[in-house]
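stage 2 :: seqdesign
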């Protein structure tokens, strides 16, 4: 964590580098767990989406077809999951019931 925080401070000039490093780690860890379990899927996708946008635009300087290509690809996948929402095979569906679109029918 100290190495990444040092990179944030020296190379990217982020304020509060240790706090930002823990935010990034927490967003990726807990967002990933949420997606794997299918519980609070939209929140998990949103956390990772924001993390990948920051990685693409700030750390990789917005180079869409170079270093930041994977960050933007992951951001696009997370945006798709965020907009589409969880499916019937998720814990969200099990705990919170059918989506509002299904209730209309």
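stage 2 :: out
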């Amino acid at each position: 964590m100290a190495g990444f925080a040092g990179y944030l401070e020296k190379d990217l000039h982020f304020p509060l580098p240790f706090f930002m490093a823990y935010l990034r780690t927490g967003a990726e860890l807990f967002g990933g767990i949420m997606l794997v379990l299918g519980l609070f899927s939209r929140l998990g996708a949103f956390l990772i989406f924001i993390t990948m946008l920051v990685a693409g635009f700030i750390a990789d300087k917005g180079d869409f077809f170079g270093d930041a290509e994977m960050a933007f690809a992951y951001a696009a996948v997370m945006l798709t999951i965020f907009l589409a929402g969880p499916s019937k095979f998720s814990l969200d569906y099990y705990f919170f019931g059918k989506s509002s679109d299904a209730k209309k029918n």
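stage 3 :: structure notes
- The chain has one domain: 2-97.
- The chain has a mean pLDDT of 84.
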